[in-house]
């Protein structure tokens, strides 16, 4: 079943330019040069119920703008959006009760009060039953290991703990659709991992549709089967992440650890040397030749360790952007 | 409904996190009242009646501004501009809650705390300064005083929200607000009863909404008003409230269309 459908969505912003300096500032009071920025420029996609989709793109690509359009914060300039059958920017209560938006850099928690006060308020806002509220709160706070922190004023919590509380506040009402904008931003690696595990669990357990944007490729790689790559407001790729890697990765990466120091010149004939620092060599080779070159290496040189891998997702994505910008 | 009561309750709790801040704010209010109080006391040393006000009426007026400020002018709506500019307005827009009711509930906390303290301060000032005061006993006038104070609160809420909505189009919301504070303090009658100005000017003031925020309720409390004056005043307040309501909603909807949900 389709949960989200977007067709020919456009969102343009008017911005104005101003050159630096006091004179320019005075001038800008009277004359402003307007300019239209196409944050989202004619994109279409559909997402099914229960899917976990990753939005990838550089800063300013239009990821967050798309999420904001989907959650009803922004009026689209053009195009149609339907989320769970609703038009988001009508902001009907029945729609809002079924979604949640978590922004890594914005919080809904009351800063000076314990998190459970915000939870209590959300219970009333979403008109939840007592037992549902208690069950959900218990489950979420246990999963995220913050049970003993919910009565401490939010400003005394660490960033990671706060982010977990934000997530609880956003999930208490069991949204069918969840928009996560940079949920792991600013967190340490351990916390990022916990957050990821939790998101994956939540998606599986409750079949909720999740759209996630992140700068950290690990987030996307581990969570999302399907990715939508956006740059300059346009969709560059929409589909399976693995397929993407296969499609773009015409190269393989061979990593070798030598037993003895080998002259670099002898190695350069094998393929493109990505890095060589004794004892470790990293080679870029064409996919079709990888087997042959691997054989050559093992035959001719004293080798301690050896691997052949697909390129990192980061590299693949970078290549997608590079080709799009040609 | 329960959600909005809870907002008031949470806002009250929030208040007591910064107790020192609040106490200093109250001190500021009292000091500014004392300045007016002593100024007028000095004026009355040589005369009995000025501009038609006797000493007890004038001093009662000045002291009661503490109370009426607590009820009418206590608001947190300046936070609206901040929420718009910082993008945290988004948190309200994605939840099933009415932002106007939310703000009214948040203001309720402000009004409760400030009014509560103003009553204490009023009593303490009465005991210390022991000035001649007018104690209104006419129930009819007291009820009208309460009614006009409530109307004034609604009117002030609308004006203040509109002022905060500037945030949709500009980041510089403090300059207009500051200017507004000064205008209100002056034109609403915080320093002196407005009808001491020459009558043509007062005629103009009577058409502005500010007159009905402080001066009008206090004037009713003091008595010595005609029924015509009361009815005219209540109708004018009503017209302003009814007029500003659709404007406030319209600006809000226009604002949301330009809202980009960005911020620091």
CATH topology grouping of the largest domain in chain A: Rossmann fold
In one word, what is the shape of chain A?
Answer: globular
SSE string of chain B, helices as H and strands as E: HHEEHHHHHHHHH
- Broad CATH class of the largest domain in chain A: Alpha Beta
**What characterizes the major β-sheet of chain B?**
2 strands, antiparallel
Any idea how many domains of chain B?
A: 1
What's the Cα radius of gyration of chain A? 24 Å
Shape of chain B: globular
Number of helices of chain A: 12
Please report the distance between the alpha carbons of the first and last residues of chain A. Answer: 37 Å
Query: Biggest interface: chains and residue counts?
Result: A-B, 29 and 24 residues
Number of DSSP-assigned strands of chain B? 2
Name the strands of the widest sheet of chain A in spatial order: 5-6-7-3-8-9
Rg of chain B is 19 Å
Number of spatially distinct domains of chain A: 2
Low-confidence stretches of chain B: none
Structural features:
heterodimer, A: 326 residues, alpha/beta, Rossmann fold, Alpha-Beta Plaits, six-stranded mixed beta sheet, four-stranded antiparallel beta sheet, 12 helices, globular, B: 264 residues, mainly alpha, two-stranded antiparallel sheet, 11 helices, 72% helix, 2% strand
Question: Helices, strands, pairings?
Answer:
The complex is a heterodimer of chains A (326) and B (264).
Chain A: E1 2-17, H1 22-30, E2 33-48, E3 52-56, H2 63-70, E4 78-83, H3 93-96, E5 99-103, H4 115-125, H5 130-143, H6 159-171, E6 177-181, H7 189-206, E7 209-213, H8 217-223, E8 226-231, E9 234-240, H9 241-248, E10 251-258, H10 264-268, E11 272-277, E12 280-286, H11 290-300, E13 303-309, H12 313-324
Parallel strand pairs in A: 3-7, 3-8, 5-6, 6-7
Antiparallel strand pairs in A: 1-2, 1-4, 8-9, 10-12, 10-13, 11-12
Chain B: H1 2-15, H2 19-43, E1 49-50, E2 53-54, H3 55-73, H4 78-86, H5 90-93, H6 99-129, H7 139-164, H8 174-187, H9 199-205, H10 215-222, H11 227-258
Antiparallel strand pairs in B: 1-2
């Amino acid at each position: 079943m389709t949960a989200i459908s977007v067709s020919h969505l456009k969102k343009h912003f008017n911005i104005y330019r101003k050159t630096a300096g006091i004179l320019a500032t005075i001038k800008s009071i009277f004359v402003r040069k307007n300019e239209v920025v196409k944050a989202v420029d004619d994109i279409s996609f559909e997402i099914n119920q229960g899917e976990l989709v990753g939005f990838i793109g550089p800063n300013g690509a239009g990821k967050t703008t798309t999420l904001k359009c989907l959650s009803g914060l922004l009026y689209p300039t053009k195009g149609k959006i339907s989320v769970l059958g609703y038009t988001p920017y009508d902001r009907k209560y029945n729609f809002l009760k079924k979604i949640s938006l978590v922004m890594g850099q914005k919080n809904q928690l009351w800063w000076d009060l314990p998190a459970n006060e915000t939870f209590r308020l959300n219970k009333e806002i979403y008109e939840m039953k007592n037992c549902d509220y208690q069950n959900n709160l218990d489950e979420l706070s246990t999963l995220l290991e913050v049970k003993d922190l919910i009565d401490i004023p939010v400003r005394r919590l660490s960033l990671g703990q706060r982010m977990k509380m934000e997530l609880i506040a956003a999930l208490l009402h069991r949204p069918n659709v969840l928009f996560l904008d940079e949920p792991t931003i600013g967190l340490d690696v351990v916390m990022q991992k916990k957050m990821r595990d939790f998101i994956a669990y939540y998606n599986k357990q409750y079949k909720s549709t999740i759209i996630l944007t992140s700068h950290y490729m690990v987030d996307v790689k581990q969570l999302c089967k399907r990715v939508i790559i956006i740059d300059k407001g346009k969709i560059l790729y929409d589909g399976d992440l693995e397929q993407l890697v296969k499609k773009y990765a015409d190269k393989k990466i061979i990593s070798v650890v030598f037993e003895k120091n080998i002259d670099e010149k002898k190695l350069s004939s094998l393929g493109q040397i990505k890095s060589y620092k004794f004892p470790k060599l990293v080679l870029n080779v064409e996919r079709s030749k990888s087997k042959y070159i691997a054989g050559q290496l093992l035959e001719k040189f004293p080798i301690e360790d050896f691997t052949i891998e697909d390129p990192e997702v980061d590299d693949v994505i970078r290549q997608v952007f590079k080709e799009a910008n040609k | 409904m329960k959600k909005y009561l809870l907002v008031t309750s949470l806002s009250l709790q929030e208040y007591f996190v910064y107790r020192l801040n609040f106490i200093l704010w109250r001190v500021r209010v009292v000091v500014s009242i004392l300045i007016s109080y002593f100024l007028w006391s000095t004026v009355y040393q040589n005369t009995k009646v000025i501009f038609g006000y006797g000493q007890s009426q004038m001093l009662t007026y000045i002291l009661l501004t503490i109370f009426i400020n607590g009820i009418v002018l206590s608001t947190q709506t300046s936070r609206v501009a901040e929420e718009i500019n910082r993008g945290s307005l988004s948190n309200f827009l994605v939840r099933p809650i009415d932002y106007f009711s939310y703000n009214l509930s948040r203001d309720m906390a402000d009004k409760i705390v400030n009014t509560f303290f103003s009553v204490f301060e009023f009593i303490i000032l009465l005991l210390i300064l022991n000035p001649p005061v007018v104690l209104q006993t006419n129930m009819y006038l007291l009820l009208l005083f309460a009614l006009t104070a409530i109307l004034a609160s609604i009117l002030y809420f609308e004006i203040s929200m509109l002022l905060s909505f500037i945030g949709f189009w500009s980041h510089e919301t403090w300059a207009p607000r500051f200017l507004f504070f000064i205008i209100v303090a002056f034109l609403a009658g915080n320093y002196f009863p407005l009808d001491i100005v020459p009558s043509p000017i007062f005629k103009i003031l009577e058409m502005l909404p500010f007159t009905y925020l402080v001066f009008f309720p206090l004037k009713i409390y003091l008595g010595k008003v005609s029924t015509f004056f009361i009815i005219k005043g209540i109708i004018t307040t009503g017209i302003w409230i009814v007029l500003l309501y659709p404007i406030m909603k319209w600006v809000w909807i226009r604002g949301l269309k330009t809202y980009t949900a960005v911020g620091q």
